[in-house]
Amino acid sequence: MATVEYQRIGKSFGAVTIMRDISFRIEDHEFVVLLGPSGCGKTTLLRMTAGLESVSEGDLMIGGKRVNDVHPRDRSIAMVFQNYALYPTMKVYDNIAFSLEVAKIPAADIKKRVEWTAATLNLTAYLDRYPKELSGGQRQRVAMGRAMVREAEVFLFDEPLSNLDAKLRAHMRTEIRQLHNRLKTTTIYVTHDQIEAMTMADKIVVMRAGKIEQIGSPDDVYDRPASKYVADFIGSSSINFLPGTVVVGNGAPAVDTATGRVTVEESSALKPGQKVVLGLRPTDVVVDADGPLVAKAILTERLGHDAQLFCEGPEGSFVAVVDKAARFSEGAEIRFAIPPSKVHVFDAETEIRI
Ligand code: ATP
Predict the structure, then answer these.
(1) Hey, is 151 helix, strand or coil?
(2) Where is the ABC transporter domain (predicted)?
(3) Which among 29, 53, 131, 182 has the fewest CB atoms less than 10 Å away?
(4) Per-residue DSSP letters for 302-347?
(5) For residue 353, is it within any domain?
C-alpha cells in the first residue's frame, strides 16, 4: 500500500521556518498535484518526501511507516526532475538501466525491465541514441523511464514539463496521465501551472507561503474556491474581483458594488452591511442588455473558439468571455449578468469564502 501521509510537517532552514503544520493524506493509486506560486514550498515538500531534504517537524509516513530517517534509496520512491538529469555520455538504454546496475540487479533482469519500460513509454526505437539526439519530449520520457524502471511505489514529479513548449507540454500532460491510468502508481506532482493541475490531478493541494490553502478535486477548487487566493490562482482567464457591501435586495441577498448590484445565493453567513469581495469568472458573466453590471468595452481578443472582451469598470478592468461573432465598439457601455450560483463571495477582511 503506497499511501503517503504528512502529519504536522514543518520545515526550517537554519533559523527560518518556511513551512509549518502541513497535514494531509494521499491514498494508494492517487495522482495528487501540489500547486502554488514560486516559493510557496511545494518543491521542498516533494524533496522531503524523497528524502533529499530533512523533515524538521512532524511525521512523514509512506505505506504506513514513518520514514523521516529512512535513506532515500530505501523509500520505494522515484523522482523525475525538471531538468531531466540524464547522463549525456550514456545511451538511452544505459540511462534507463543505470539505477538497476548500481543496485547490482542481474543483467538479464535489467534487460527485461528496460525493454518493458521503453515499450511502455514508446522509446524502443531510441534505446541506442544519446540524449542530445532526442527531442525535448523524448528526453522527458527517458527521464520518466529512469524513474519507472525501478518499480517504485510512489512517483514524484518536480515540474517535469516546464522546459517544453506549449504544444508538447499539452501532449505530455495527457501521456503522463494515461500512463498513470495504466500503472496506477501513487503520484505526487509539483507545478505552478494551474492547467496542469486541473487536467491531471485526482486531488489538488493548493499551497501558499508554506501552508495549505485548499485541498480538493479539480472541480472543488474551481467551483468552490476556499479563498480569494485560490479563486485567483485557478482558472484560465483571471477572475474579476469586485469589492462591495451586502444588502437585502428583493427578498434575495445581494451585494452592491461600484459596477452594479449582484444577486447572490442565500447564505446565513451574509449580514447586511458586511464588506465582501465578489469573484466573477469571465466564463460565467454573460452580455445581457438587462444585466445589472455595467462596464465600458475596450478591446476584444479573439481566442479561436470564443473571445475575451476587456472592459474598463469603476474598479478597474473587467473581463468577460463572449461569442467570437459579437462586435463591441470601443467605449460602448456593455451590461452583464451572472447567475447567483456562479458568484463567489469572500469576506473582505479574511478573504475566506462565505
Ligand atoms: P519554485 O516553484 O520556485 O521552485 P517552490 O514553491 O517549490 O518554488 P521551494 O523551492 O520549496 O518553493 O522554496 C520554499 C521556500 O524555502 C522559499 O522561500 C525558498 O527561498 C526557501 N528555501 C528553499 N530551499 C532552501 C535552502 N536550501 N536554504 C534556505 N532556504 C531555502
Answers:
(1) coil
(2) 4-234
(3) 182
(4) E-SSSEEEEEEETTEEEEEEE-TT----TT-EEEEE--GGG-EEEE
(5) no
Residue nearest to atom 11 of ligand 1 (CA): 41
Render pLDDT for 90-148 as a digit per residue (tens, 0 to 9): 999 999 999 899 888 999 999 999 998 998 888 999 999 999 999 888 898 899 899 88
Q: Within 6 Å (CB) of ligand 1, which residues are found?
A: 13, 18, 36, 38-44, 192
pLDDT digits (tens, 9 = 90+) for 198-236: 999 999 999 999 999 999 999 999 999 999 999 999 988
CATH at 163: 3.40.50.300
State the pLDDT confidence band at 14, using cuts at 50, 70 and 90: very high
Among 18, 38, 159, 163, say which to mutate for ligand 1: greatest number of ligand atoms within 8 Å of CB: 18
The residue from 176, 197, 232 where one domain ends is: 232
Distance 334 CA to ligand 1 centre (A): 45
Query: In the chain, how many domains are there?
Result: 2
Whether ipTM tops 0.85, in short, is yes
CATH number at residue 339: 2.40.50.140
Whole-prediction pTM value? 0.91
**Ligand 1: which of 13, 19, 161 to mutate, most ligand atoms within 8 Å of CB?**
13
Q: Are 51 and 75 in contact (CB under 8 A)?
A: yes
